[in-house]
Design goal:
288 residues, 10 helices, elongated
């Protein structure tokens, strides 16, 4: 999950960034409203933490422009303790929640988890997917009730796919959700992370590759349903296949079924002529 922090207080921004990164989030930071607006135009985020008292462009204006673009990005606004009017304006402009300064980091982290769950359409802190479960608070994944050892990047990848079951996620989208500014992560690296994650999940949970498009975490039971469908098709084809085989066998019965002596002699002559002729073949270049 990727979070943008728009906060001009460098000490507060640094504390928020460190805390959220330790919780497994990818975090980017801007210190003015103009940069925040530009980042929201060009990048994909899962949450915006927005200070209303930003220079160059106020937080309220950043929020107004964001909602004018019909963005549903969850927004948590930060305000001074006595700025009731600003909090009301922010909520009316489309903010999802607010916190008054000063605040406890543990409370902010809890509100971040709540807003990212809401943005993903979920309510519980534990996301379940067949035999797989992911605790968003403890940042731990379980498969058949056993903890899976995952790196921070694998955990982030799992979360992105898990919150979009049955939906295609492109490599570019994964880079956007998992990586901060300045990180050099190629699509080839994404392939490596997916491969490692797949080894730890399969066969209980399947992550399929749609070549040239991206990845999809199959919904529970999808693989079983596909196998059942294939078996049904094979079963329906079996009688007609058997009938066709019987017809062919019948048509070959009698003189047509067994080569005549004349046919055998012709075959022998052809083989002798072939062995006597010099072997001259034009070399073929390797395919592809």
């Amino acid at each position: 999950m990727r979070i943008l922090i728009a906060e001009d207080d460098s000490i507060l921004a640094d504390g928020l960034t460190r805390s959220l990164r330790q919780s497994g989030y990818a975090v980017d930071h801007v210190d003015n409203g103009a940069d925040a607006d530009n980042a929201l135009l060009l990048q994909t985020f899962d949450l915006l933490i927005l200070d209303l008292g930003l220079p160059r462009l106020s937080g309220l204006e950043v929020l107004r422009r964001l909602r004018a673009r019909n963005s549903t990005l969850p927004v948590l606004i930060l305000t001074a303790a006595d700025s009731v009017d600003e909090r009301v304006k922010g909520l009316d402009l489309g903010a999802d929640d607010y916190m008054a300064k000063p605040f406890a980091l543990t409370e902010l982290e809890a509100r971040v988890r709540a807003l990212t769950r809401r943005g993903a359409g979920g309510g519980s802190t534990v996301v379940r997917h067949g035999a797989l479960s992911f605790d968003q608070v403890a940042r731990v994944a379980y498969l058949n009730d056993r903890v899976i050892e995952l790196s921070a990047r694998e955990l982030g990848l799992l979360e992105v796919l898990l919150l979009r079951p049955g939906r295609l996620v492109s490599k570019e989208q994964l880079v956007d959700h998992l990586c901060e500014w300045g990180e050099e992560v190629s699509t080839n690296a994404i392939e490596v992370y997916v491969h490692r994650l797949r080894k730890k999940l399969e066969p209980d949970v399947r992550v399929t590759t749609v070549r040239g498009l991206g990845y999809c975490m199959e919904k529970p039971g999808a693989g079983t349903a596909q196998a059942t469908s294939t078996a049904s098709v094979n079963a329906s084809l079996a009688p007609s296949t058997a009938a066709t085989t019987a017809t062919v066998a019948t048509g070959l019965s009698g003189s047509d079924a067994t080569p005549s002596a004349h046919d055998a002699d012709d075959a022998t002559k052809a083989a002798s002529q072939s062995s006597a002729a010099p072997a001259s073949r034009t070399p073929r270049s390797p395919a592809g």
